[in-house]
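Running this now, will post back.
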Amino acid sequence: MISTMTRYQMLQTNSALTKTLTQNDATVKRDTEYYLANISKVKTIDEFVKDYRLFSYAMKAYGLEDMTYAKAFMKKLLTEGVSSSTSMANKLVDPRYKEFAKAFDFAAKGDKATSEASATTEAVSKYYQQTLENKEGEQNEGVRLALYFKRKASSVTSVMGLLADKRLLTFMQTTFNIPKEASKAGIDLQVRNLEKHIDIKDLQDPKKVDRLIQRFSAMWDMNNSTLEEVAPVLTLFSEPTEAGISVDLMMSITKLRRGGF
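Update: finished.
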């Protein structure tokens, strides 16, 4: 099985080709053509939510595919908008909802909301990326999390931002071997625990983000490997090896030990 880091690097190195292949997928192409041809015709929240093809496309683009069924909830979110500090979008911990409400800002822009770049070209670009991440996740969830972290890291400005996003939190827990049970602790304790492992300013440094992804990938593979995936070459050595750790993974761990973090 190809390692998480190897697959991630392949996608990063061949990003232009990967994007083209994603765009040319028959289903993706058909759904995108429909979306671009019709989204700007939508003038109200009700029209938006009632058109399943448009609404589900937009929800997927902004990472909310699993909430497409919650139409009443999303209608309330869009109706309240983002201008008030007491609006639903600003009170919810998960930042995806606020991002969606800003992208389709019917509350502030009315019938012009769906003509904005955030609702058209930007939404399509996000849809392509989300489609790619979902596809990779079907083969290796670790790759999807690595791609997601790369995309989101620079937008995180606080430890709470990591705790509020389930995927980012999973990434951090895996990277630093933090038990999932730690999420049951009080928020203050969770924040202090994460602060021991990460300086939030590091997420603005692309090199440090890449090193975190390298460490995450090694830890992910170590935690998710099986006995059958042990590289045959390891059996040639008399030194004991932990079941499930491939040569590729061992090399990654070695690099991490040398590079810190």
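Residues 152 and 213 are 12 Å apart (CA to CA). More later if anyone needs it.
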